[in-house]
Amino acid sequence: MIYRFYEKILLRDLQTLPEHICFMITGQDMLDAPGNLYRAAQWCRDLGIKSAMFHISTPDPARLERCLPRIREVASIAHLTLHYRDEKEVGGEGMDVTVAIGKSGREEIAGCVRRMAEDGVDPELVDEDLLESYLTFNYEPDLVIKTGGDHLTDFLIWQSVYSELFFLDVNWALLRKVDFLRALRDFQSRARRFGR
């Protein structure tokens, strides 16, 4: 009961929302609470956030195969892009939601360099804009939310350089809407400098 009251207070005071959010969770988080991904996507949609990305960090994506049906449920409320192994699935309509399982930012950057070399790009022509055009995930989150830990993965290492970071003190399995709203309140209070 008290959480619903607190939610209303937080919602009332939210005025500046991020347009793009990235949640960083572990493979074990996903196994412990696979339904939370749908819930978090729904919270984002209901608040009018433009897009949400979920990075599920795991060295063994096959372990999460049993979670795929729950992840695919997101397509019933949003436009879902799912990156799993070397495959990409797209479905649904509405707010953009991307789920990336076991992807690495280092691998993404190395892949950009390889593709530029394969395309015969002159090294003198390589700049930030060209590199960004080769990225798999052309997504710059305003806010990165990490649950249950104090370190990030290397996912979106190029794209999140100017993102605001929020480390939730609760694990993914215990995530409540009020925790999500606390992250948004914190985002709202920050003066973004974008590296300046």
The CATH architecture designation of the domain at 19-104 and 140-189 is 3-Layer(aba) Sandwich
Mean pLDDT: 83
How far is the first residue's CA from the last residue's CA?
A: 43 Å
Q: Name the beta content range.
A: 15-25%
CATH classification, class level of the domain at 19-104 and 140-189? Alpha Beta
Share of helix among residues?
25-40%
Q: What is the number of E strands? A: 7
The CATH topology of the domain at 19-104 and 140-189 turns out to be Undecaprenyl pyrophosphate synthetase
Q: Kindly report the name of the CATH homologous superfamily of the domain at 19-104 and 140-189.
A: Decaprenyl diphosphate synthase-like
Name the helix and strand elements from N-terminus to C-terminus, one letter apiece.
HEHHEHEEEHHEEH
Secondary-structure-derived class: alpha/beta
Rg calculated over all Cα atoms: 17 Å
User: Biggest sheet, in brief?
Assistant: 7 strands, mixed
How many DSSP H or I helices?
A: 7
Using the alpha-carbon principal axes, give the shape: globular
Low-confidence stretches: none
Strand order of the largest sheet: 4-3-5-2-1-6-7
